[in-house]
Design goal:
Length: about 550
């Protein structure tokens, strides 16, 4: 057997998320690719939390949704999620009878605390799968440092208990790959930004973007950056715009409600042509919505937020790996075109974790059209491509006038009709330049059966479930990774090769399908939508795709 899926469930405060990470690290050390999804409620203690660990000798892109082993610290958690268990799967509950483990009793006897329960689980897994216990020790020493020994003792007890009870075995072949880092999408967004030259990150904490701030604040000295927790979202984006105006690459992070508050400042960045990268890690709305769950309902928002007309670029990573790649691209686009660039992530890929093989030692250059001439500097010089030379305030021999009102080429306020038209036309020229350049940029990905007449269209985080679901099906899959400028010609060319188009997205109004119709004139009638806050399950999605293929 070269694949295993493990469910770990309990209450907030019982170490579910970190426990799943240690399970993932154990399987990673054993040579497996790993994907970890965390499901948690917005309470400090209580409520039902769970994590799913999907590991395979082949690369994995999603949680499985169908479990080989379920570990549940509470009966009610098991009752809610027992349908996830595979036929002949193993269930381990907090009980003394049968093939169960009395987690609470063991903790009491060993003077442990609730967050240590997953360490007992790790020992049971080691016995069931025949993964060497030495790897368990290595993981726990690395993860818990000075507290590692207590966790190792609990894991050893779990191993011995499972052996004494003669738990059933799962024949798990040893993996072949070297251990890779297990990182979340948000961590890769943070690292992509740093490797692109970002020096300032600003944010007001909001789920599910908060962990970017947490990570960068913790690592700020090592990474030589400033991570600033501002008093609100408006302050966050204004500080990022101010940093970029001073020539310092900056990013601001938030979720949908924060974009609402930032709207006027986004228009400011667009009108003053200041390069800023904006992360929107989507959650279920409207209003406070379901704050710790996932959705793709901010597409319309980032496409249209900000009053007036100005160029913007919207990138939508569909996998954890792409979070790094597209963050790098976001900074490169922002600083070349001097305009706001959005990274449209969501809770599922922002907070899920995966083994990745990314060259973290590489730095990426930010190309900028800097002012390098002598003479008068015009911040908004009307150039052929709409991109004006960029100068940082304080550069010798220049004066940088930047004004939030409509302005002359020199940057002075002006509402004269001919000047208003001139500056609007200049920004239109920049938009046309972006549109033209993006004809040769990487804007879509294609997967599946290249000759199939059935096509799935999607963007963002459903990618993983789609890739798992379409295996061996007569279908190809187009992932749109740039929503603005929309890759109209590429999409139409793919549409011309198929007879059946299926839209898959995670909102209730099919926002991508509406965008496709707006840009191509083609209406997608087959739609698979999910909007309960949970990510697509590959098995359920496959059934829906098969129905749409009939």
């Amino acid at each position: 057997m070269g694949e295993i899926t493990i469910f770990l469930g309990g209450q907030a405060g019982e170490g579910i998320k970190r426990g799943a990470l240690t399970i993932g690290k154990l399987l990673n050390l054993y040579g497996y690719h790993v994907f970890i999804m965390d499901d948690y409620v917005s309470t400090i203690r209580g409520g039902q939390d769970y994590s799913e660990v999907h590991a395979s000798q082949q690369e994995v892109f999603s949680q499985s949704g169908s479990e080989d082993i379920i570990f549940s610290f509470h009966q009610d958690v098991y009752e809610r999620y027992k349908d996830k268990l595979k036929e002949n799967g193993i269930v381990v509950l907090d009980e003394e009878d049968g093939l169960n483990v009395p987690f609470n009793k063991i903790l009491k006897e060993h003077k442990g605390i609730p967050v240590m329960k997953p360490s007992i689980v790790l020992g049971v897994i080691s016995y069931i799968t025949d993964i060497p216990f030495s790897l368990v020790e290595k993981v726990l020493k690395s993860e818990f440092k000075e507290k590692g020994q207590k966790n190792i003792e609990l894991a050893q007890y779990g191993f011995n208990f499972a052996e004494e009870k003669n738990f059933p075995k799962i024949s798990l072949s040893s993996g072949v790959k070297p251990p890779y880092p297990i990182v979340s999408g948000n961590e890769l967004i943070a690292l992509g930004a740093v490797h692109s030259g970002m020096k300032v990150y600003t944010a007001y904490p909001i789920t599910p973007a908060s962990s970017v701030l947490h990570f960068l604040a913790k690592e700020s000295k090592r990474l030589h950056i400033a991570a600033v927790h501002t008093e609100d979202e408006i302050s966050a984006i204004m500080m990022a715009i101010g940093a970029a105006y001073a020539g310092v690459p900056a990013m601001v992070g938030t979720s949908g409600p924060g974009i609402d508050l930032m709207s006027e400042a986004i228009s400011l960045a667009g009108g003053t042509e200041i390069p800023v990268v904006i992360l929107d890690s989507q959650r279920a709305g409207p209003t406070t919505g379901v704050p710790t769950y996932t959705e793709q309902s901010d597409l319309n928002e980032v496409l249209h937020t900000g009053h007036g007309e100005f160029p913007r670029i919207v990138l939508a990573p569909g996998s954890i790996d792409e979070c790094f790649e597209l963050t790098v691209k976001a900074f490169q686009y922002a600083w070349w075109y001097q305009t706001p660039v959005f990274i449209l992530s969501d809770k599922h890929i922002s907070e899920s974790s995966k083994t990745v093989n990314i060259p973290f030692d590489k730095q990426f250059k930010l190309s900028t059209k800097y002012f390098q001439e002598n003479g008068e500097y015009k911040r908004y010089l009307d150039t052929d491509d709409g991109i004006s030379p960029f100068a940082i305030p304080g550069m010798e021999g220049i004066v940088n006038h930047t004004n939030s009102t409509e302005h002359t080429e020199e940057g002075y306020s002006s509402g004269l009709p001919h000047n208003v038209v001139k500056m609007k036309n200049k920004r239109i020229k920049k938009q046309n330049t972006i549109n033209r350049d993006f004809l040769s940029e990487h804007t879509i990905n294609m997967y599946g059966d290249a000759g199939a007449k059935n096509l799935i269209v999607s963007f963002g985080s459903p990618k993983g479930a789609i890739l798992e679901a379409i295996q061996d099906l007569p279908v190809k899959y187009m992932q749109i990774i740039v929503a603005d400028p929309f890759p109209r010609e590429k999409v139409k060319n793919i549409f011309d090769t198929v007879t059946n188009i299926i839209d898959v997205e995670q909102n209730s109004t099919a926002q991508l399908a509406r965008l496709v119709k707006e840009k191509t004139g083609i209406e997608i009638k087959n739609k698979i939508l999910r909007y309960d806050g949970r990510p697509f399950d590959p098995f359920e999605l496959r059934e829906k795709i098969e129905e749409a293929l009939k």
